[in-house]
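Suppose you are handed a protein chain with no further information: no name, no annotation, nothing but its sequence. What can you learn? This example shows the usual starting point.
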Amino acid sequence: MSCASDSTGIYNCRDFPSLFALPGYIQASRALMIAAIVFGTFGLVATLVGMKCSKIGGENYVLKGRITAIGGVLFLLQGICTMIAISWYAANITQEFFDQFYPGTKYEIGEGLYIGWSSGTLAICGGACLLCACKVNNPNEKTQYPYQPSSRGHVLSAGAVTQSAPSNYGRNAYV
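A reasonable first move is to predict its three-dimensional structure. Written in structure tokens, the prediction is:
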């Protein structure tokens, strides 16, 4: 329903005959927001699968990096769809509000638009961070591991090896 009140406090309401009778920009904004929800859901699943700490996908970090990059692209698409839908709706609301000859109900920008703008910005920033953070290594590239000493506790030194004089004591001679 579309309701409006006058200065005396009387409400005048009229029914929309159908959901498809809404203006075209509202239907397009609705479709873009549904697409944003779908992109965000698949982006979240792809990001969770692509994390190094998840067991899904095994130890193939090249594949996990690519899946994480796909999640970042999906988050970017979510943010772009959200920003287009919210900004288009806000532009039409503002245009109708300042039009003196507009015969319909005049709406104002509300809190939902600000929440939409902030969520779109966060989705774009999150997708960009995911794309920048997931370094896709070449499969032929070897990963450098830090030096691990052997299990016996002997550490090899890079210095010159000196030989000591043989002693008359065996291994068990010490107290």
